[in-house]
């Protein structure tokens, strides 16, 4: 496994040239686009890792999984899915037009920005800090790493430049889908800026692969919620490239514009990948290729 | 003329029951939906008026004409129309989706909210107050009424509830079409809350009917800009009912969600109407009927 | 006038290089893109013309005016406008998506293809030939030229290649907006292929400029229908460049993808232009420039 | 298993009242909306069935799986997916607007009508009959039932009423995505009208559950194609309710507007369901509930 991971990193790292780092968030634009790292953790706790697996990066859209789980634990499926749908969209993650043309103030799923903003509005807590802290806390538990915290520079950078997300949030408020724009976005930007490395991601993946039970055997997520979230990873986890990823790679995964991908093989392993050079749809260009190669070599597709 | 106006007010006032006042701006929701007023001014200065012609109301979208003229005087046609188009849209005034699906950060025309926000961003001045004051000043000059000012309660009400306009403004900022959301919107809300009555509107209409020269003979708008604005009144002045209004009434007109309509007959008269009960597209339901009747009785259509 | 027209043709002909002939209809693609012609007729019958004013071309979208008048004479305003709207759209002439996203089987106006197809379905007659013949007959009467007929090669060429129009027609049939696709399209293609020259167009324009009365003083169109059609020419006559044309030129006009433009100055003159090099929106690139120059030189704008 | 199936049929049959049979195809409108049947086949060949499992119905959209497999065997992945995408859309199956607004003549996936029409155009054969026969032949082999054939009344009914599919096909032809509308649609309507019962569907499902090997052990589909098709079943198999079905049921499935659903549990069983009362998205209302209950009782979700 160790050798396989090292060879995959070597093989796919050059493809970084074909992509580029997210530029609309100034802090993310500073990342070194050439990096590529991967870590794999199995249920026995064996860790294999290669490349830039110790480089830290922010969760970005990967946090949509975590906030969805917190909201589901807070309110249950029925209330959450009264406010956000379950359907993939085929549109870019920051798209807005469907909210207008369908005249329904219900984002199609919680993995696009509009849906994730609605989910963040549902997280309970006395303050924005407390609400964000609850998301961070679940990340710590899933990764079994109490030191995980947010990256304040990225948080501020996002907060100050998030025009499109503010457009989405005000549109949603205008439709009655959320109550408070700045508070909701503050929770959202905080969760996006949670900072991890590939090993953290791999442990989080293992927790989902074990239906909510961590490496140390602690249940931190109810089984049905873990299952539900894995399903969203398959149908909408890779933005509007999810369908192709399901066909070519075939494992539950969620990407972020920082270049991270949290993936897993049910019952068998958690996987963390980091490669900040992105393709046009916002996914790690090297990360996707590494995962496709890895999945095909080991026959990991769930299909 | 006096009798005609009085009979038209009597005849069309009952239709107010079929409409309702704008409710998304709390201050506008307080208006008495049953009111209907009209004033007509001719080049000799004769004023005829009937009904609630002395009731004051805010310009709302009628101010889009005025800010467009200020921006054109500040920058010239070429620069303004590099940022906003000249085409009617067929969509509601607060629509956003076309900006996304055409991937062009250029609102189709300056009479829809997105376009008017871009226009407001172009008005010169050292501060928001000064920029808005320049719009108010042109209104005063057109109406020959130095007492015209903004209604601060409506201004604050709009500023605090304008979710959809903020969504538009952040979307436009995200595309690079405007620089500062809150400053631009502040100018925009101020111009929308300029407070007039039917006689003011009629005098403003006369000024346009005389291609920029007021009742007292003062040129306050260059002739080519007055002409250009009258053209927009015909093609996009009545929201996405402009085409029907052109056919049924046939005179340049611009409506606002306060229930006001500024209309004119080139060279012959300025017309101000106020009827706050709106139809589904946001136009005064009684105002449109009164104008259609008036236009047909006197054969005023320019077509 | 004669000298003016000749100088305008010379001045604007070179711009043909910036456009190109319609290529999606094979017969139209054969036209010489460098041609430019213009004819003007006044109420006294004086004809001035320059350039390729004797070259024959097909009406294409200009026929939408004629079929609308026939349908209005057949059914009256109320029935026709129950099936097709009065609003400009901002979209390309062959656009379909708004029919789907608004879920209303009512094209926004009769000057886009979808609307014109619905109008063609309303023209009465015992056969397709008779229905088309009624449109041709009105063209003959307006132009006072009994020899006008359709160009069969263009008709067949359109009929055999009209994929997008067939898509529109089947979509409309699926919504219940028309009954028979091939019959309706056959009327539509026949009217599009009516063959005229600039002098014919200018006489047709004069007939509208005189509210339905021909050069020889014969009323061939009711006055209110002529007025209505002139209004559509201003709001939607130049595809999704109508708003700009109203501002820059300011006279009622209707273009076709053959390169023809029928224009008029109310009460004063009819104008026929032919320049087959088209801009991206489907209007004659030389024709628009010539008309803008002509209108500005003579101060013809109705605004 | 037998008792379970019988109890599920009894329990869920009454929900048929909440849906209705497809009405836009006259022959389908004749179906008895109260029927509900199910059949399950395991790798040992045990068949369990209940309710209307012997009633015959047409494949409709279920045939999109089969034609995709034939096209993939004819051309390989690369060529097929150059013409049709892999992404779920969130839109209704007969939607067209995205083809226009994205200006890309590539339907988002082969499970929506636009995509399936493109796929049908790729199936090789000397005639329409031969091309359709190849699809039917693969159905026969998967179901191990040489008597399967098309229902000619349904075929003719679809062919004669398919306005929206013709609109899609002409639009696609206009974009260059297909060459011949009527031939392509003829193949498409023929494949849609292939007639089966629940046991046939269950055997076809088992063939996919065994990655392309039939009950009798015959390989009729390459393994990688079977896997690919199962992935599409998960991401886009249940129209724009696929995301919700993945969460609530969690097994690969494909529905048709006849009320049939082909489903499977990888390696374990094939499932055929028939319940012609449809919900608003076009899926069998009783069929979905039965499958959800069945999946939860036996813990079949792949997630």
From TrEMBL, chains A, B, C, D:
Enzyme class: hydrolase
Alphabetical keyword list: Acetylation, Hydrolase
Transmembrane segments: none
Chemical reaction(s) catalysed: L-glutamine + H2O = L-glutamate + NH4(+)
Keyword Hydrolase assigned: yes
Gene Ontology biological-process annotations: glutamate biosynthetic process; L-glutamine catabolic process
Recorded GO MF terms: glutaminase activity
Domain of life, per lineage: Bacteria
Binding site for substrate: 61, 113, 158, 165, 188, 239, 257
Record EC number: 3.5.1.2
Record flagged with keyword Repressor: no
Similarity comment: family membership: Belongs to the glutaminase family.
Assembly and binders: Homotetramer.
Protein name from the UniProt record: Glutaminase
Gene name linked to the record: glsA
């Amino acid at each position: 496994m160790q050798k396989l991971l090292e060879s995959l990193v070597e093989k796919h790292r050059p493809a970084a040239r074909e992509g580029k780092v997210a530029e609309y968030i100034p802090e993310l634009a500073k990342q070194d686009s050439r990096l590529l790292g991967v870590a794999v953790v199995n249920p026995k706790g064996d860790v294999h890792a290669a490349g830039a697996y110790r480089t830290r990066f922010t969760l970005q859209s990967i946090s949509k999984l975590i906030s969805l789980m917190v909201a589901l634990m807070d309110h249950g499926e029925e209330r959450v899915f009264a406010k956000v749908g379950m359907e993939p969209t085929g549109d870019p993650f920051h798209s807005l037009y469907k909210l207008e043309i369908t005249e329904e103030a219900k984002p199609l799923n919680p993995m696009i920005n509009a849906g994730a903003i609605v989910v963040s509005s549902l997280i309970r807590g006395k303050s924005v800090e407390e609400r964000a802290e609850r998301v961070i806390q679940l990340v710590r538990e899933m990764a079994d790493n109490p030191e995980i915290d947010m990256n304040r520079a990225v948080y501020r950078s996002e907060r100050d430049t998030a025009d499109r997300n503010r457009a989405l949030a005000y549109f949603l408020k205008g439709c009655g889908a959320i109550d408070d724009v700045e508070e909701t976005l503050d929770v959202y930007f905080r969760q996006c800026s949670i900072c991890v490395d590939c090993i953290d991601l791999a442990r989080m993946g293992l927790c989902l692969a074990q239906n909510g039970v961590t490496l140390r055997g602690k249940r931190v997520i109810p089984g049905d919620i873990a299952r539900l979230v894995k399903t969203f990873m398959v149908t909408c986890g890779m933005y509007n490239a999810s369908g192709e990823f399901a066909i070519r790679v075939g494992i539950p995964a969620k990407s972020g514009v920082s270049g991270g991908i949290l993936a897993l093989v049910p019952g068998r392993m958690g996987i963390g990948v980091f490669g900040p050079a992105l393709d046009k749809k916002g996914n790690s260009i090297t990360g996707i290729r590494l995962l496709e190669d890895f999945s095909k070599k080991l026959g990991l597709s769930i299909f």
